[in-house]
């Protein structure tokens, strides 16, 4: 296709792919020294260059309930958009563009994907949409997602846009520790969620994909508030430090145990679960230090609890732990969770319990696809079933061997 302006459908003039690629190149060239406050104006200018209008960058809030607009010159202003039941939310959750015909053309919602994690959605309106437009818009969305992730290290404005409720200091610390909430690569996908998002203190998770091995840890520090957040910070830091030294799971447990004991004394502890998954073979290893047993999901149904020998929580000086092992089948999912999810009391005074959790996992698995959508839906429905209460932190982390 040439770089000349051509006549498109319904007599519409549109830029050819050559012109579109030039606009994307300009965005990339200018992004390196772009001040964060100019992200929205630059994206708006590129959208206008595509012949689009009314752009808005929508970012997921910490509770994953709404998509909040990132303010800036050239962008549409408005209220946060609910994720459930909206076209923007459908693009965000599904990871695919959504086109919505309007009186003035086509409103396009593009997921902003970064390494499988979804930052939010980009919305804009075109007079009409063809395959060249779709290809260019997908590339634009990929560039914008990378730009937002990169620039978020230099500014508070992106975090502020995502914060639609007051956040505690403990939660601020926890969110600063977290890796991206989801990752999708050809062999494995993961997704995690914390609640209550704006008040979480002692729960956290971490993961890393080192060559063919996925490393995962979920933790729950005793107590509440800032003390729990401080302990969780040390626990995650110790886990990362040991993991990056390429030592085994038993040695990682011992290192974390010493770090908590030396820093906080013998009366403090952190429950934890550390896993390793060989993404080439499906060989799963794990150490359980006081967490509920993970659930094995196969063909969208919980088939068993992954029972294993448990050891003392880190900080209590437990003996060398037994490493449990299992070979997964293709498509298997493993759900890890902390006790705050099942020990919450319902309105009648009964604990929510693991049986109810399993029942709802089976329901959600049948109605949602993708680990990220499943974790989000499961967290929200479980919180609703508990009467909206989360008196203790609760964490869900889902692994899929693909």
Describe the structure in your own words.
This protein is an alpha+beta fold. The chain has two domains: 6-161, GAF domain (Beta-Lactamase), CATH 3.30.450; 167-401, Phosphatase 2c, domain 1 (4-Layer Sandwich). Helices cover 34% and strands 28% of the residues. It is built from ten helices and 19 strands. The chain has helices spanning 17-31, 39-49, 87-94, 131-151, 157-162, 169-177, 225-243, 249-264, 353-367, 371-385, and strands at residues 6-7, 13-14, 53-60, 66-69, 81-82, 98-102, 105-114, 117-126, 182-184, 188-195, 203-210, 213-221, 270-278, 283-289, 295-298, 301-305, 324-327, 333-337, 394-401. The strands form four sheets. A six-stranded antiparallel sheet has the order 5-4-3-8-7-6, with helices on both faces. α6 (169-177) packs parallel to α7. Residues 1-13 have low confidence and may be disordered. It holds the Pfam family SpoIIE. Residues 185-401 form the PPM-type phosphatase domain. This is Serine/threonine-protein phosphatase. InterPro entries: Bact_Sigma-Reg (IPR052016), PPM-type-like_dom_sf (IPR036457), PPM-type_phosphatase-like_dom (IPR001932).
List keywords for this structure.
402 residues, alpha+beta, Beta-Lactamase, Phosphatase 2c, domain 1, 2 domains, six-stranded antiparallel sheet, 19 strands, Bact_Sigma-Reg, PPM-type-like_dom_sf, hydrolase
């Amino acid at each position: 296709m040439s770089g000349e302006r051509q006549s498109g459908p319904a007599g519409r003039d549109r830029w050819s792919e050559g012109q579109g690629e030039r606009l994307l190149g300009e965005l990339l060239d200018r992004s390196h020294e772009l001040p964060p406050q100019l992200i929205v104006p630059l994206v708006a200018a590129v959208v206008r260059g595509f012949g689009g209008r009314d752009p808005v960058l929508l970012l997921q809030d910490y509770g994953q309930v709404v998509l909040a607009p990132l303010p800036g010159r050239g962008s549409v202003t408005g209220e946060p958009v609910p994720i459930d039941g909206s076209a923007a939310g459908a693009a965000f959750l599904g990871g695919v563009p959504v086109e919505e015909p309007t009186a003035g053309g086509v409103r396009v919602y593009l997921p902003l994907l970064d390494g499988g994690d979804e930052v939010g959605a980009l919305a804009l309106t075109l007079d009409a949409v063809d395959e060249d437009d779709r290809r260019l818009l997908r590339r634009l969305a990929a560039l914008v997602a990378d730009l937002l992730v990169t620039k978020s290290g230099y500014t508070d404005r992106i975090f502020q846009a995502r914060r639609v409720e007051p956040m505690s200091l403990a939660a601020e610390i926890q969110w600063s520790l977290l890796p991206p909430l989801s990752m999708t690569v050809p062999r494995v996908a993961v997704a995690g969620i914390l609640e209550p998002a704006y008040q979480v203190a002692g729960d956290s998770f971490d993961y890393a994909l080192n060559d063919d091995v996925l490393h995962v840890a979920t933790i729950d520090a005793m107590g509440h508030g800032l003390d729990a957040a401080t302990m969780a910070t040390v626990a995650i830091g110790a886990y990362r430090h040991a993991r990056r030294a390429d030592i085994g799971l038993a040695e990682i447990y011992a290192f974390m145990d010493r770090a908590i004991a030396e820093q906080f004394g013998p009366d403090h502890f952190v429950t934890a679960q550390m896993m390793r998954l060989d993404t080439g073979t499906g060989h799963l290893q794990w150490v359980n230090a006081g967490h509920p047993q993970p659930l094995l999901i196969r063909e969208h149904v919980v088939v068993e609890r992954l029972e294993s020998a448990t050891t003392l929580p880190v900080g209590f000086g437990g003996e060398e732990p037994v490493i449990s092992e299992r070979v997964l089948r293709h498509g298997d999912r493993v759900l890890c969770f902390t006790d705050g999810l099942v020990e919450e009391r319902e309105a009648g005074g009964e604990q929510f319990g693991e049986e109810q959790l399993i029942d709802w996992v089976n329901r959600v698995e049948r109605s949602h696809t993708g680990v990220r959508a499943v974790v989000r839906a499961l967290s929200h429905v479980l919180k609703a079933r508990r009467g909206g209460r989360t008196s203790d932190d609760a964490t869900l982390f889902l692994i899929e061997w693909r």
